[in-house]
Structure formats: C-alpha cells, structure tokens
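=== RUN LOG ===
request id: a7f3
mode: sequence -> structure
chains: 1
length: 97
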Amino acid sequence: MTLSVRMDPLLEKELELAARRQGVTKSQFVVDAVERALGRKNSYQLLLQAKAQVAQEPHAEKWAKAFAAEHDQPYETEASRAALIAKLRAKHGLGAD
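=== RESULT ===
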C-alpha cells in the first residue's frame, strides 16, 4: 500500500538524516516508527533479541570481559575534563587562566 504524507521540509530533512544514520530508507524508517507507535514493536523485546544474537557470536565472551573491565572504576568527568583542557592549553601554547 502506498501512503503520502505532507510534512514540513525541515522535518523531512531530519527524517532523511535519521534514516540515513540507521542505514534504512525513509519508508522503512516511517514504517518502523508507526509499528512502534502502534505497539507492534516492543523496544525492550528487540533489545533482548539483540542481546541473544550477540551472545551467540563466537567472540561474545571475550567482548564481555573486555567491556566489563571498563566499569571497574567510575568515570571521573571533572578530572578528565581538567586533564583534557590542560593538554589542549599545552598543545596550543596557552597559559592557565
């Protein structure tokens, strides 16, 4: 079935960019959005399916261990920000303010 929809040009451009990021056509993107809005696609179920597929991958256990190590210590945002600013200042020859 064919369906025509009128929308603001900016909204259409945003739709086009979002579809391109996901690697699907605008039509596929809209159909997916309508299915989710109607409750035909449950995001949580899709997440569980994706996790099950990843778990079946031959290197899944190795990946899980690699990514688990990232969570051993919490990410310190302010310390990282300060270190990044210091590196940028040193790189560009700027003194501390």
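=== NOTES ===
The CA atoms of residues 31 and 53 lie 23 Å apart.
The mean pLDDT is 85.
=== END ===
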